[in-house]
Specification:
10 strands; alpha/beta; 215 residues
């Protein structure tokens, strides 16, 4: 049984925790505030979900998922360099600055990506970018969309990407829906896709969708 640490106990982290626990993994949700603690009732749902601080989570887990806010993730995860050394870090966040209405307005790293910044800051960690081109509920229920969605994968380490592809399967993603784009620099393309999201939300409301490839 793999121990998966999720940094961030908000709705993205809790959603991933539920599905991964149901798939048989032990999940540790890494909290950074009492606000996250009171917002995280999943601990009583499945005994394979536990809670810890983020340092303990990163140190204890076999695989770590970054589900923290993207605009502050680089500083936060750089502080976990020792704990993350030698591990796979799955980055599902988008680093943006909010527009006036609170929706994503612009990229924090317009000539790069959060994933690239994380890989540079954590050279002993294998960073894999994925699951960042959809609303959070689609991450764990891709089959609920009317059209087969696409999940993109970027990373320098092929074995790490194979491991993450297995986790995507546990989340419900079929092999035909998984698109390996190549090395970590390709993450700047998928992170830029976040710029379409606020326009869709303003027009259609908060309805499940993914930015997908149709052939």
């Amino acid at each position: 049984m793999t121990t998966i640490g999720i940094l961030g106990a908000g709705r993205v982290g809790r959603n991933l925790a539920q599905k991964l626990a149901l798939s048989g993994h032990h999940v540790i949700l890494g909290r950074r505030s009492t606000e996250e603690e009171t917002a995280a009732p999943v601990g009583g749902v499945d005994p394979r979900i536990s809670f810890a601080d983020q340092h303990t989570t990163a140190r204890t887990a076999d695989i770590v998922i970054n589900a923290t806010p993207g605009d502050s993730a680089l500083d936060r995860l750089t502080g976990l360099r020792t704990e993350l050394a030698g591990k796979i870090l799955v980055d599902v966040s988008n680093a943006t600055r909010d527009a006036d209405d609170g929706l994503p307005g612009e990229l924090c790293y317009p000539r790069s990506s959060l994933a690239e910044q994380l890989q540079a800051a954590l050279p002993d960690t294998r960073v894999v970018k994925t699951l960042n081109t959809m609303l959070f509920m689609v991450m764990t229920a891709p089959e609920t969309l009317g059209t087969p969605p696409t999940v993109y994968v970027s990373g320098n380490d092929k074995q790490a990407k194979r491991t993450v592809t297995g986790l995507l399967g546990d989340l419900g993603w079929q092999p035909a829906w998984i698109e390996d784009l190549g090395d970590i620099t390709t993450a700047r393309a998928t992170e830029a896709m976040i710029l379409v999201v606020p326009h869709i939300l303003r027009r259609h409301g908060f309805q499940p969708f993914a930015v997908s490839l149709t052939r």
